[in-house]
Amino acid sequence: MFTRTFACDFCTVARICARIYDERVPNPSGSDKFRAFTRVVGRQAGQSRWSRAGYKGVKTLLGSVGHVIRVLWHEVTGVFFFVFGSIVALAAVREYRRYAAGGYGPGRPILATVLAIMFLYFAMSAFRRANRKMK
After folding, report:
1. Which run of H or of E encompasses 133?
2. pLDDT at 76
3. Count of other CB atoms within 10 angstroms of residue 92
């Protein structure tokens, strides 16, 4: 028959596991290898005048394109807030007329006025941000 002592197997497994974690240099993962590779490639590319010029050119191009996209984003959001604010302002006028005619209380015209002011403030601040100069 096959006899086995479990205490020895456990000790052997424990010794193997202890040896794995006692290593001084861990096995590098794939991301560590990729980071090291990109660091070496970056150093080599930084030594070339053409690659430095290309990097600076791409950086400048992306910076200006990013600035245009940012300005466009603020202008479009400003237009949307202005349109919504104008619509709510017209609703505030309509609600005030109904309130003045004695239709109901002052809550709806006040709410519409506050919303209109808020939307128009957002539109104004978006246009102000669009005109802001880049550093």
Report:
1. none
2. 95
3. 20
Query: Residue 127 in contact with residue 74, Cβ under 8 Å?
Result: yes
| Torsion sign across C-alpha atoms 59, 65, 67, 69 | negative
CB 126 within 8 A of CB 73: no
- Residue 130, both tokens: 């669009």
Nearest to residue 77, comparing CAs of 31, 122, 110?
A: 122
pLDDT < 70 positions in the chain: 1-26, 134-135
The three-class DSSP label of residue 12 is helix
How is 14-82 classified by DSSP, letter by letter? Answer: HHHHHHHHT-SSPPP-HHHHHHHHHHHHHHHHHT-HHHHHHHHHHHHHHHHHHHHHHHHHHHHHHHHHH
Cβ atoms of 120 and 82 closer than 8 Å: yes
Burial grade of 28 (CB within 10 A; 0-12, 13-18, 19 or more): exposed
